[in-house]
Amino acid sequence: MANDRPAFDARALGPARAARALGEWTDDVRAGRLPRREFVARLAALGVAAPVASALLAFAGVAHAQPQSSYKPTKRGGGGALKLLFWQGPTLLNPHFAIGAKDQEGCWLFYEALARYDADGNLAPVLAAAIPSRANGGIAADGRSVTWTLKKDVRWHDGRPFTADDVVFNFAYATDPQTASTSIASYEGIVAARKVDTHTVRYEFKTATPLWDRAANVLLVARHLFEAYAGAKSRDAPTNLKPVGTGPYRFVDFKPGDLLRGELNRDYHGANRPHFDSVELKGGGDATSAARAVLQTGEYDFGWNLQVEDDVLTRLEASRKGRVVACPSGDVEVIQVNHADPWSEVEGERSSPRSRHPILSEHAVREALTLLLDRKSIQSFVYGRAGVATPNIVNNPSRLNSPNIKDEFSVERANAVLDAAGWKRGSDGVRQKDGKRLKLLFQTSINSVRQKVQNIYKQSCAKAGIELELKTIAASVFFSSDVANPDTYGKFLADLEMYAVAGRQPDPDTFMQWFVSWQMAAKANKWQGVNRGRYRNEEYDRLYRASQAELDPAKRTALIVAMNDLVCREHAIIPVVYRPSIYGVGRQLVAPLSGWDNALTSIAEWYAEA
Amino acid sequence: MGHYLLRRLLIAVPSLLGISVVLFTVLALAPGDPFSEMALNPNIPPEVQAALRKHFGLDDPIWQRYFRWLVAMLHGDWGFSFISRVDVDTLIWQRVPVTLAVIGASQVLALLIALPVGIYSAARPYSWFDRIASTLALVGFSLPTFFTGLLLILLFSIKLDWLPFVYRTDIAATGWDWWVQQLRQSIMPITVLGLFQGAGWTRYVRSATLDVIRLDYVTTARSKGLRERVVIVKHVARNAMIPVVTLIALTMPQVFGGAVVTEQIFRVPGIGSLLIDAIQRNDLPVVMAVTFVLSCLVIAFNLLADIVYGWLDPRISYR
Amino acid sequence: MAGSTPASATAEPTVQAAPARPRRSVSPGAEAWRRFKRHRLAVIGLVVLALMVLLVAVGPLVWRVQINDIDFTARLNTPTANHPFGTDDLGQDIFARMLYGGRISLAVGLSAMLMAMVVGVTIGAIAGISRGAVDATLMWLTDLFLSLPLLPLLLVLTYLFRDALKNAFGPEIGVFMLVVVVIGAFGWMSVARLVRAQFFSLREKEFVEAARALGASVPRQVVRHILPNALGPVIVAGTINVAAAIILESTLSFLGLGFPPDIPTWGRILFDSKEYLDIAPHWSLFPGTAIFLAVLCINFVGDGLRDALDPRKVL
How far is CA B251 from CA A17, B194, B247, in A? Predict the structure, then answer.
């Protein structure tokens, strides 16, 4: 997001001034003095995700950006077959059980939600007649509810009409603990879903909040097909494997992990949509060959999540059969610092919250580690357009500089900092102090890109006298929650670990919980706590509690900014790059993609140019 | 012989049970969690992951889980995939035709290459044919399949654009057209795997034939005036076949789950890729079912090979 | 049966007329060595193999370029004086990496092969010479190992033993031992089956009966009479096992088991280079050739061994 104005110094604002500034900017947008895009960009510089900025504006009564539609075809069908390649194929088709993003993708062919997030983080209506706003009364002024009006004349694939009863049912189904659904997270903070009339639904919130767009993009299943299978019987429903939705394509066939097929829905509620007569979603293989199939041979029209080195992608694009699209999103790759001691046991527990790391609790060491991360090279030579260097932890796509949080790579400064702190080089080149050697264990999951980053980091650290031992763990083991497994990222039996944080959710709240002391992962909570770094800082705890109690969106955002600053100044965690979503698109395919939502949420809008 | 066969079949049952115990224990001990991806999504409360683990009995002691599995198996219920919520036998049956068509065909190709080339090389040792064939065979098994597969893709799919490299099970054509398309997409995976196997087998066949070809009875057959071809086929080949039969019996069961790399590269939805997916996601029921079928096949082919030895070499007796 | 036709061209065929003078009695070992030396190709194979071992053992002490010297200005360079084998996509010197990784690849390949052979021949011989319960049990064991899926077993073993081995032997040796044991554990079954099959047909032969009649004990029959004739397929299996071991090791580290990703074994370098085949073929050329060369040499040595050890031959 290029900015012609003089470099905007977001960081120079303290919380109170930031709060006032936010209020001013909101007024400016409403009055038309400040372009909406600029507002979103400034909030991004402060670490606030685009969908959140958008929701805040709507709450403040600013009119929605009109969704631009670039859909050209003038009749339904006729586009032939659409072939999609997902190197991790979907394995189930009930959106409420989806474990990862890829399982949801398959569902978007057949099911729909009230709305979806476009590339700028704005909501576009799908099953909703219009996006709620203050003007149309959808967003309640007291922040305690939001009312959605539903599109009329929408039918399920079996012909039954879609009504408010379905929406209310989905809430009950997902929030029933017996169903053990994963979508329960999307309804967090919503206490009730009330049917106002056959085509109007109201969600009521537990506490007043300016973030009204919760559950907007939850995929909705049919009440008449799932009623009989609510609760503990949920996994027996036949519709789990033969989806009946409201979407642009009807279900044809499904082979888990391999192939999913759909055909045109003649009764789809969008005019002239969809363009393609059939859709085929193939899974399996690896990302690089998926990129080849789309970009080099043109066998497929769309490739999902191409986690491939950038120079390989550029070379593949040279065949001119397709192009690579990078969508800004909220995902950030971070290196987590262990503030507890993984090498000693406290009451039988390693990395216990009661212990402090002998080496990493020194600010100088953490500062040196941050200085030794060559983000620019990692971005240029490894991630490429798939990773933009970031010194911030919360959703910062901006290149705006700030005096406090800088992206700096300097081996000399790192050496200076360590020298000043008393770490002297030993005979083998590794620094020592008080009998402790500056040797750290750095673990991550298996992924060729991550391994390259590990190698680069190891080498820079060696130049400063820090010895890094590298360890890689299979992804299903690393991210597991098995209490007996020593290699999980929750147990964190290492000094540093690297992984990506999904920033797809609009609320930065969950992200901020990573640093509160009552969320420290420990034996007591089966290492499920999200504060895996075992970070403890009273000032941070205080700011967090204050932000939870704050209703004014501007003040709240300002508090979030202050928390972000604190964490970055303290080097509690080392952000690496922020990762946009990377897709491969065939030459003739026109597809509005968004990094804030799944790739296939807009599939009804896809078409091929002749 | 009948006695021996009966005895072996009776022994097969407890030995299968024993294998299944070891398999189950190894799989249950392996670290990893089928629901680990939930951990990646900060929004999903950890209770959901814990509830699912409880639902599927993942925290129960191993012997309990084993008995549950055994009882279900005896009822014909092969279990339920943790990840995709589909019956395991459905999953496997979906993949059997493709596996046979591609992986099965590659084994046949390997055999069709190895037998004639190996025997001919041994019949004309140190000739040009022999030297070239041997060198090619050595190259063939020194290069891993991920490498040769990629080479072929680069050459035939990307540079020449002759062949598609993503295998599709739903070709929308009929009759002759269908066969042509099927052939075009299968030829690369079959070749990669077939050549890799065939290279190793050629060396075995050559070595086994060399052992036999100068023996007295072969000289006798020749001096009787029999044609060379008859000598080779009727006298030499049959006696050289013992190591070859052993090999075939060893590798045939690998069709069921062994060709993982080839299936990954060409996206062939065979049982190998089902197995590796299930292993990486810790989908225990699927892994257990596939490896159990594999062990049945191993035992069956082992028995078959033992019987064939008796037919090939009448001096071998079973007491 | 073994050894009637020499395995390789350079061995001379059966001598037509034996010299008339009496021969000195020579120990079997020296006799075998003498016969081996007459195979030109086998000797060349042995020499090249020894050279490779020397190179990887001593090379890193002479060629001082570091294996993980990242240099972004020299990415994907073709061979030059500074970098005799070129550089990879992080600018690291491929020659240095090959020398360093060669130690591991060759050591793993050779040890795993030896382990598989020793275990396989022992089990196959015991199964082949006995009948009934012993044979059935050993075959059950073989079937068990054949059914075991590689990956879960590896995960379990790594999880159970990685730390213990690391503490006892240091990180590199510990992992090395684990990898060798695992690869060896998956290679012995085919050797055992092959040996057993050979034994079935060989033990009925007249010369074995003759040895039995002379009062040879069973172990002596096996070691002196049957085994040398059964070695043909075993040696072929050995060659194939070396290549398979080196390649399997690369698959293991790709899966995160075995050596850490920054250790450049030959299989690993081949794996890292595969996406750059069309723009930087030199990157894959060198490890591929190295593996092929190692396999070729072992193959020739195997041929020579076969003929050297064959009791029926008179050279």
Answer: 73, 12, 6
